[in-house]
Amino acid sequence: MHLEDYFDFLAPNDIRLKGTRIGIETILYDFIHRSQSPEEIANTYPSLTLEQVYATITYYLHKKEEVSNYLTEWLEWGDRMRAEQAKNPTPAMLKLREIRKKYGTARNYLEAKRHGLT
């Protein structure tokens, strides 16, 4: 088996673990930025095997520059999407912001709702 056989290369910016909807960025973010062990990552995502997690890490180590660029683009895209959402919030987001402003936390809101204070 070749290392690439573990992945579905759907697009240059979309590499997923074969048979799952999980992108390599998810595993690598947990591994690199959250310092989680392969075992912790495999336990977090029940649809993944430990072998798939190790294959993703090995793929990253084998093609470090290419995958690092992939991850950088993924992080930058996420930042752009969050900024866009902040500028153009959906009605649901506006409602959630209103609740947070009035009650502070979801727990406070639920408690107020339980007591008929909303």
Structure description:
By secondary structure, this protein is mostly helical. The chain has two domains: 3-87, Orthogonal Bundle (Arc Repressor Mutant, subunit A), CATH 1.10.10; 89-118, no CATH class. The chain is 64% helix and 8% strand. It contains six helices and two strands; from the N terminus they run ββαααααα. It has helices at residues 24-32, 38-44, 50-62, 64-87, 91-103, 106-114; strands spanning 7-11, 14-17. A two-stranded antiparallel sheet has the order 1-2. Helix 1 packs across helix 3 (50-62) and helix 5 crosses helix 6. The longest helix has 24 residues, at 64-87. The radius of gyration is 19 Å and the shape is elongated. The model has no long low-confidence stretch (mean pLDDT 91).
